[in-house]
Amino acid sequence: MAGSGSSPCASCKLLRRRCTQECVFAPYFPAEDPHKFGIVHKVFGASNVSKMLQELPARQRADAVSSLVYEANARMRDPVYGCVGAISYLQQQVSQLQMQLALAQADILCVQMHHDGHAQSPAAAPASAKQQLEQQQQMDAEAYGSLLMQNGLMNSTAAHHHHQQQQQSLGSGASTATAMMLQEACLKKEYIWA
Predict the structure, then answer these.
(1) In angstroms, rounded to a whole number, what is the distance separating the alpha carbons of residues 149 and 158?
(2) 121: number of CA atoms within 13 Å, CB side?
(3) Could you report the per-residue pLDDT of 86-106, keeping only the tens digit for each?
(4) Alpha-carbon torsion 100, 106, 112, 114, what sign?
(5) Can you give the pTM of this predicted structure?
(6) Is 128 in a helix, a strand, or coil?
(7) What angle in degrees, to the nearest 10, is found between the helix axes of 129-150 and 177-193?
(8) Is the model more confident about 93 or about 1?
(9) Distance between CA atoms of 66 and 74, rounded to whole angstroms?
(10) Number of C-beta neighbours around residue 68 at 10 A
(11) Contact 72/42 with Cβ under 8 angstroms?
């Protein structure tokens, strides 16, 4: 905190005013880091920041200043969305990675179910190509739906709709684009295994 004989804080120096012992900015905007206050002042305005800090308890002011500095830097990079744009981008990345993980897990489960099916009935007569395709599609759809629910990628409404689709004929063609990708991958494995 500035006092008699000491240099003013970054805010008072930028605003060209006398820095007192009661300066609300002094503990959070030291003189050796003028850029920190400069960017906050440019985005939010010194009067708004001062009012905000004065309304907060002293124990919360440091966290508030850190948030203001982070948001101010984000606003400089993205004036429209600020830190919300960065958060949205990261959420999209997480969703994409979760989808890739679910597809990989479904692919593994598809392979396991295929091998388990052959191990349980080694001497059984082979079914027709159409029956094998329908059985594989049903197994893939069930495995994919189960894994999506485990990874939190389907809400309760979507899960109910997915369950209804499983009860319908697999020849209706109402599967989603991602499910079709999974089925195509499993069908390619069928051709390799055949």
Answers:
(1) 10
(2) 7
(3) 899 999 999 999 999 999 998
(4) negative
(5) 0.49
(6) coil
(7) 130
(8) 93
(9) 12
(10) 21
(11) yes
The count of other CB atoms within 10 Å of the CB of residue 108 is 12
Q: Decide: 57 and 43 in contact? Cβ < 8 Å.
A: no
H or E, element range at 18 = none
Tokens representing residue 113 in the block: 């179910």
Spell out the residues 6+ positions from residue 33 whose beta carbon is closer than 8 angstroms to its own.
10
Here the tokens at position 17 are: 């005013």
Q: Letter for the amino acid at 29?
A: F
Residue 32: how many CA atoms within 13 Å on its side-chain side?
2
Q: For residues 43 and 53, is the Cβ–Cβ distance under 8 A? A: no
33, 41 Cβ separation under 8 angstroms: no
* Whole-number Cα distances in Å, 80 to 71, 76, 92: 12, 9, 18
Q: Which amino acid is at 69?
A: V
User: How far apart are alpha carbons 9 and 27 in whole angstroms?
Assistant: 8
Does residue 83 carry a pLDDT above 70?
yes
